[in-house]
Amino acid sequence: MTEQYADVIIDISHEKVDRVFQYRIPSELMKAVRPGVLVHVPFGRGNQDKMGYVVDISDRTDYPAEKIKMVTSVEDKGMSAESRQIRIAYWLKSQYGSTTIAALKTVLPVKQKRKPLEKKKIVRCLTAAEIEQAAMECGRKHQKAKERVLTALQTEEELPYELIRQKLNVAAATLQTLEKQGYLKIESENYYRNPVRVSDMRESRPVLNETQRHIIEEVLAAYCAGEPGVHLVHGVTGSGKTEVYLGIIEGMLAMGKQAIMLIPEIALTYQTLIRFYRRFGDRVSVMNSTLSAGEKYDQIERAKAGKIDVIIGPRSALFTPFPNLGVIVVDEEHESSYKSESAPRYHARETAIEIASLSGASVVLGSATPSLEAYYRALKGEYRLYEMKERPGGSMLPAVHTIDLREELRQGNRSMFSRKLQELMLDRLRRGEQTILFLNRRGYAGFVSCRSCGHVMKCPHCDVSLSEHRNGMLVCHYCGYQERKPTKCPSCRSPYLLGFKAGTEQVEEAIHREFPKARVLRMDADTTRKKESYEKILSTFADQGADILVGTQMIVKGHDFPAVTLVGVLAADLSLNRSDYRAGERTFQLLTQAAGRAGRGDKPGEVVIQTYQPEHYSVVFAARQDYGGFYGEEIAYRELLGYPPVEHMLAVLIVSRMQEDGEALGKEMTELIRKEMGDAAGLRVIGPTEASIGKISDLYRHTFYLRHGDYQVLVKAKDRMENFCRERALKSQTVQFDFDPINTY
Ligand code: ADP
Ligand code: ZN
Ligand code: ZN
After folding, report:
1. Do domains 396-445+502-639 and 648-739 have the same CATH topology?
2. SS (H, E, C) 654-669
3. Which class is domain 396-445+502-639?
4. What's the pTM value of the predicted model, to 2 decimals?
């Protein structure tokens, strides 16, 4: 029997978790020693007895075998929070590919020395009625920032200082003035984050409708019956999903359980936070990217010690080590930000399901436009599916106009705005209502289309659009196919075969030209580089400080602007032409979410979708708000071509100093897989080819793809390639793995 070695970390609260020590496993302990298990080991010169966690097992060692000490014994203490975390780290490493250290660092908070934090809060000094009076006064004087603070204080006696500063975007000087005027007091406290203390009277708790009650009861009943399971809530925007999450979490808390609530960072708004604070008071905490490593560590300690029961946050909140986890909610589960962009490249949805199954917890996924992955499994019966088709207030879904941009050109309209959109924008300006113009710029990835007939240059082998490279070649990033860019459209011979390049700045200029009186705000990666500017633009727009908001996909997320009655999507097909099999899905999601922004108040909304491909199913079904119709078309396409979720895909990215090295390594690895894993029937190896961005920071990038119906076959291939790379001791190349990638390379 071959020797086995255990990688052990002695102290996980140590500042560096990358001190891993190797021990030999005695044969009688082979079965018992597993990742996550607590073991006794001899440590240091005096062979002092210490305890440590096993983080990995291998049959190789980099030290002379005779120098390695032996594991003494296994400590059987059941499954502690730590051992569960380590099991998860090991799972991340094996399912997604990464080093042990990177996986541990994803899961374990690293303790850091820091000064005790001083946290400030704002306490109101007058009665709610007096504050309301003062807020109205400020409103009349157009003191918007003061009005926002006072309005928030009408319902809350206390608010965290940072929440006001960041989420309400109020300057420190404004708060000092309000303090001087006697409206409020700014107080300091010495412990970490004291969430809002809420006056229970004021808590707005709608009477749940039949559907909402049914979902909450079903989820809790399944949990109590010992079948926690995965539940998918498909509900149109504004259908009351958040109330359902609140109800489920409340039920879990009543049973002494804890809850993790995942929200994409960009949708983590003040309005959402306050709803959770109101319901659960100081049992809630927030995790987000503005917290320092030290603050994150504190949160984790509080969770472990049972001082909080609910954590809200993006992806990383998933690793909060609650002792009695009852439910993980993943809101907007289709969001691509749930996929990690660095190794281990885990997906929060899949990881939530794994964590829940280790903890006996339920998972609730929610979305207005579920990912193909989630819906596919729900239809297969792996998840339970619930539909919420109506908005409780009865507010109407908007009327949608689809405009054919080819026809506009034929009619001589060269503006970015179709005649219908111009007419409706003018109408809104006259009535003092607001408009959002949405430019789906993420789609601009060098695709080439004909301005006369809409023809898109596509790969003859793959059904994805070709990308224009600077050398004038059109390249397929899936199979490596190349052709020279034609001078005329192959379909109609028009010479207007162009890459699409309109940006938000050009849109802003066009509005100034065509509607000189309109007040315009622009929101994109350039105007929001600073964190506060994002909130500032949104709050200015919410205060009706502008008539038109122009932006990229960041404006379609989770914000309620009751005065917006018109949404224009300037070029819906931009995202359709990405060289990516998820293009149709993304377009459908973006259009549906964008349309959901119109008419959230009591006035009905209208949506204008401008497109070169009005007949494309993503556009047609989004205009009808018909998820089922879209899903049917899209899944048929994935089935035909063997794309996820029907089959699984592993992208391998090779980064190298020398172009030849990357190319050669790609060839060697694909040959190795073809040779050694040829018996895994149905394994497809595609590539290698140069990546779509062939060079970044002077490093060359090559890529290839593996596809198979069984995820574990791809894991096996990854393990084989990892071994190969280790044996070769690569120096000038690195290899990265990405399972079921969100973006292509
Ligand atoms: P979603 O999360 O699906 O977008 P929300 O839970 O935010 O929906 O609900 C949208 C709006 O409808 C909120 O203002 C919420 O307070 C309100 N709402 C939710 N459920 C009900 C209900 N049963 N009765 C009345 N209003 C409700
Ligand atoms: Zn191709
Ligand atoms: Zn053409």
Report:
1. no
2. EEECCHHHHHHHHHHH
3. alpha beta
4. 0.80
Distance 572 CA to ligand 3 centre (A): 18
The answer to whether residue 94 scores a pLDDT higher than 50 is yes
Domain covering 210-393 in this structure, CATH number: 3.40.50.300
* Ligand 2 center from residue 478 Cα (angstroms): 5
Ligand 1 first shell, C-beta below 6 A: 206-209, 212, 235, 237-243, 392-393
Coil, strand or helix: which one is 206? coil
Report which bound ligand comes closest to the CA of 498. Answer: 3
Sign of the Cα pseudo-torsion (16, 21, 25, 29, in order): negative
Contact 313, 285 (CB under 8 A): no
Name which of 237, 263, 260 is nearest 248 in CA terms: 260
Segment 672-695 shows an average pLDDT of 84
| Residues 163-173: tens digit of each pLDDT | 777 777 788 88
- The answer, yes or no, to whether residue 80 has pLDDT greater than 80, is no
Which protein residue's CA is at the shortest distance from atom 9 of ligand 1? 240
Residue 414 has pLDDT above 70, yes or no: yes
Residue 33: what are its φ and ψ, rounded to 5°? Answer: -85, 110
- Report which ligand 1 atom has the smallest distance to the Cα of 208: 23
Backbone angles phi, psi at 7, to 5 degrees: -90, 125
Across residues 598-612, what is the average pLDDT? 83
Question: How much distance in Å is there from the Cα of 480 to the middle of ligand 2?
Answer: 6
Question: Torsions phi, psi of 187, nearest 5?
Answer: -120, 150
Q: Among the ranges 201-205, 518-522, 581-585, which has the highest mean pLDDT value?
A: 518-522
Classified by CATH at the fold level, domain 5-107 comes out as: GIY-YIG endonuclease (3.40.1440)
pLDDT average, residue stretch 368-391: 95
Pick the residue whose CA is nearest to atom 23 on ligand 1. Answer: 208
CA nearest ligand 1 atom 10, residue: 238
- Domain assignments of the chain as residue spans, ordered by start: 5-107, 117-191, 210-393, 396-445+502-639, 648-739
- Closest atom, ligand 1, to C-alpha of 237: 4
The amino acid sitting at 347 is: H
What CATH topology corresponds to 648-739?
Alpha-Beta Plaits (3.30.70)
pLDDT tens, residue by residue, 455-499: 888 887 766 678 776 677 887 766 678 899 898 999 999 888 876
Q: Helix or strand or coil: residue 94? A: helix
Pocket test for ligand 1, best of 209, 234, 243 (most atoms within 8 A of CB): 243
* Whether residue 681 has pLDDT greater than 80: no
